[in-house]
Every structure is written in structure tokens, then in C-alpha cells.
Amino acid sequence: MDLQNYSFVSEFILHGLCNSRNLQMFFFVFFSGIYLAIVLGNLLIVVTVIFDPRLHSSPMYFLLGNLSFLDMWLASFATPKMIRDFLSDRKLISFGGCMAQIFFLHFIGGAEMILLVSMAYDRYVAICKPLHYMTVMNRRTCIGLVLISWTIGFVHSISQVAFTVNLPYCGPNEVDSFFCDLPLVIKLACRDTYVLGILMISDSGLLSMSCFLLLMISYTVILVTVQQHAAGGVSKALSTCSAHIMVVTLFFGPCIFIYVWPFSRFSVDKVLSVFYTIFTPLLNPLIYTLRNEEMKAAMKKLWNRHVTFH
Prior knowledge:
Strand content: under 5%
Largest sheet: 3 strands, mixed
Mean pLDDT: 83
Number of helices: 12
Shape: globular
Helix content: over 70%
Low-confidence stretches: 1-7
Number of domains: 1
Order of helices and strands: EHHHHEHHHEHHHHH
Oligomer: single chain
CATH topology: Rhopdopsin 7-helix transmembrane proteins
């Protein structure tokens, strides 16, 4: 194709979640409330972990604090623009803004996947090797796990964007979603990108699938170990693990569906995107921390200290 005969696009048009004006006003109010709850809930967890010495020194809560930090960013790379777009007739995003959304989605999403695996490993060591827990999960190990998650997320993301940003885009420029996602943007390039798309999207699919399988294996081993050694704790462990598995499934399920079958587009894809970009960051604080008595006690202590100070 002679690309000189085509004008390159400088912006993309997002289709958003729906076309109904009344529904868009409802979604504006609904998602504004959801986003506020995500930011405040996760920020509260981060602040509590930082300022409570006992939680800050605990490997589990250190990792949970980092998860909440990532969740705030995961909910923020596209949600504020989506909320603003509910009030706009034309939902435009610049070329640079589109590439930035792809970068942050894969950077934060990839880092969170690895961090969730690290958290499952932390629980495995705590339950299956309790006598060695503080030795294995020392401060250096925890910081290393967090750094590894961020590094893998960055390398994964930059490898995706480096190819995507250099593709020629000369129209059409309409993205059938509320944010720029890799499979949707790649197919807008004015050249054959099938093989490149398979390679790039397989990267995301492989990362999602391998992390999901590792998590399922970890939780299975934990449940089997608890059943063998502590009959009385099976119901509690099952309750905790089932809640974790629910969040993991809501996060990984849509990712696997979207990136393992990227060229079979369904209208349900944008609904699935809502789950791992908005609902998962909302559920993580509820499932992982706010159901935890120690975390709630630390929050109450921090609140009382703040009120007393003022």
C-alpha cells in the first residue's frame, strides 16, 4: 500500500459504553460514585499500611498496600476520561493519549498480575511453611517481589507500545470501546498486522493465562495443606480462598477472553473491560482487606489518633 496517498490520523474516536443519552447520564452518576469509592478505599488502605508500624512490617500487608496502590492507577488510566465522555457527544482522544492508555493498561495490569502471584506465594509460605515464614518473606524479599512485578509490567508494556506506536494509521480511526486497547487499535493500522497482532496479543494472553494457572495451583495447594493439618481451619481457609479466587477470576477472566481470542470481537468485550479496569479495583479492598479484622482495627486506631490530634 502506498501510504503517501493517505493522511495519518492524529486522534481516535471512542464509541464509549453506549449511545443512549439517558443511559449515559445514569452511567455518569454511577461510575463517578464507583471511581470515588475506588480511590478513597484504596487510598485508605495505603495510608493505613504506611502509618501503622505493625502492618508496615508485615509481608502480607506490605504486598496488600502495593496492590491497593496499583488498583488506584488501574482505575485511573481510563475511568476519569470515560466519566467525562458521558457528557460529550464526540468522544475524542489524541494519538498520544491513546498510546498512553495502552502503555498504562499493560504496565499496571502486568504488574498487578505478578503481584497477585507474589501474594499467593506469601500465603503459601505462611500456611505451608509457617516456621520459616519470617525468614523466607523478609523485607528484602518483599521489596524484591514488588520490584519484579513493576519491572515485568514495564517490559511487557513497552514491548507492546514500541510496535503499536510505529504502525501507520490512516483511517478509519474509530475504537469500539471506552478506552484504547491493543486488539482494537492494531486492527486500525493501514497495513497487514495479523502476524504482528498475534505475536503481541499472545504476549498478553500468555502472561494472563500463566499467572492465572499459578494462582489456581497455589490456592489448591493451600486448601489441601489446611485440610491435612488443621481440620478446624478448613472452612475459614475455604472462605478466604474462595473470595480471593472470585476476585482473581473477575480480573483474569476478561483478560484471558479478550487476549486469547482477540480477533473474534464481541459486543460483550467492552463490558468485560469494565470488570478488570473498574470493578476489580473496587472489589480488591473489600475482599483482601476490609473483611480483615486486623486491618479494620488499624483503620479505627488511625482514625481515633487523627480525631484526637485535632
